[in-house]
Amino acid sequence: MTQPHQIILLAHGSSDIRWCETFEKLAEPTVQSIENAAIAYMELAEPSLDTIIAQASRSGARRFTVVPLFLAAGRHLRKDVPAMIEKLEAEHQVSIRLAEPIGTNPKLGLAIREVVRDELGRAES
Amino acid sequence: MTQPHQIILLAHGSSDIRWCETFEKLAEPTVQSIENAAIAYMELAEPSLDTIIAQASRSGARRFTVVPLFLAAGRHLRKDVPAMIEKLEAEHQVSIRLAEPIGTNPKLGLAIREVVRDELGRAES
């Protein structure tokens, strides 16, 4: 038996509402079809990672996987997010796995090719 | 008849080689199967947008579509890139269309859901 898992799609966040709306739409297919999945922001927007982990841990979640909605790992994913996670694990007595940024999964490259095909169709219609 | 089109996948760029390698892999399926597609970087890495546009325009390309390998539009895509494009259009006498960032295409959200499924499989195996 495995424990249920809380999935957190982690986006950068911004004070620009349009930025957050794009990420909320990106998260929609996941949130709607995978149980215990939510979006959270690293900074500048709510819900924060802290808010989501506090909430889920109050509901009994102990295991989390953070999937970064970042195409590649820069300073944030190499330093800032691991430090945030370490602090949150201690604070909430939970276990949090930081997955690779989505852009390292080959499925993203295939999706990008389809997006480019859409753009070519748009440009030539 | 429509003119042939040069597609440019535009990534942010970084002095960190691992960052660029991730984007080169992301671009691979597109570059390998769509004619006249190349990756370029906005800053901090080569080939730059300028390099690619200069090269392609020397080979006769007059129409470009820049597809931003960004999940959402922030200051770079709202201000910096349009300004770069305006300058490059004048300089090289070409027409450059800036597409929406890839994250606004619903195909990305579906790919993210599949990435999350992969992560759940990884976490529970």
TrEMBL record, chains A, B:
Keyword Lyase part of the UniProt annotation: yes
Alphabetic keyword roster: Lyase, Metal-binding
Cross-referenced Pfam families: CbiX
Superkingdom, taxonomy of origin: Bacteria
Protein name: CbiX/SirB N-terminal domain-containing protein
Keyword Transferase applies: no
Organism name: Marinobacter daepoensis
InterPro entries attached to this UniProt entry: CbiX-like, Sirohydro_Cobaltochel/CbiX
